[in-house]
Structures are given as C-alpha cells and as structure tokens.
Design goal:
Blueprint (H helix, E strand, L loop, with lengths): L10 H28 L8 E9 L4 E10 L5 E5 L15 E7 L4 E8 L2 E9 L3
Antiparallel strand pairs: 1-2, 2-4, 3-5, 5-6
C-alpha cells in the first residue's frame, strides 16, 4: 500500500490568518462604536428655582422661575400650559414670571443649547 502525503497550508499560517481576521473585525466594530458614541449630545442641564404664589382673590397661581446655575445651557425659557413660551433669559440670576396659572397646570422649563431645546424640569402647579 502506498501512502501519499500531501501538504496544505501550515497550521501556523492558518492561525495567523485567523488572528488577523479577528483584529480587522474588532477594529471595524470599535470604529463604529466610537462614531456612534461621539454623536450623542450632552444632556441639557441647568439649575433653576421655582417659586409659586397663590392669589386667593382670583384662585390662580403666579410662578417665578429663577436661573440659579448655568450648567450646559445658553438660555432658559418657560413653556406655559397652552404651549406659548416666555421670552428667553440669557444670564444666571435672571427670572421669568408666569401669571394666572391654575392648580394642576404644568409648566415646562426649557433650556436652549446652540438652537436646540430640551426640558430641564416639568413643574406641576399647586402640588
């Protein structure tokens, strides 16, 4: 019986090729993950103080929002329950007053960053 030996690619070469393939796939996945993480925006943050005063004569509330700390925002404004907005304030220490609100109304304190807006806080009146 004649046994013929045929040689293929060495085991060492096969292992090296597999390692190179794993490194290339890992680099592609890492690049994709870094690009995805880099596209996430910083959260909108600012310190605000909300004070409400009840007006017993007409049964409404007046709310004052004071911008306490800058955080990541350029300006702060308030969105009223009907969807209208106050003018924006642009300096820490300034305040916005919203009048004639009813118990159960919700105002949203909005932060503006480079033209984009996000909710800093939602505040329920009378709670």
């Amino acid at each position: 019986m004649i046994i013929k030996k045929s040689r293929g690619v060495s085991n060492v070469i096969g292992v090296i090729l597999m390692i190179v393939l794993v490194i290339i796939v890992g680099a592609i996945i890492t690049t994709f993950a870094i690009e995805l993480a880099g596209s996430l925006d910083d959260p909108i943050q600012a310190g605000v103080d909300v004070e409400e005063d009840y007006n017993a004569i007409d049964g409404t509330y007046d709310v004052t929002v004071v911008w306490q700390t800058e955080g990541t925002v350029d300006e702060v404004m308030v969105r009223e329950p009907d969807g209208s907005q106050t003018s924006a304030i642009s300096d820490v220490g300034e305040e916005i007053e919203v009048t004639n609100l009813e118990e159960g109304d919700t105002i949203r304190i909005i932060g503006l960053v480079d033209g984009s807006e996000g909710v800093i806080q939602e505040y329920d009146i009378g709670s």
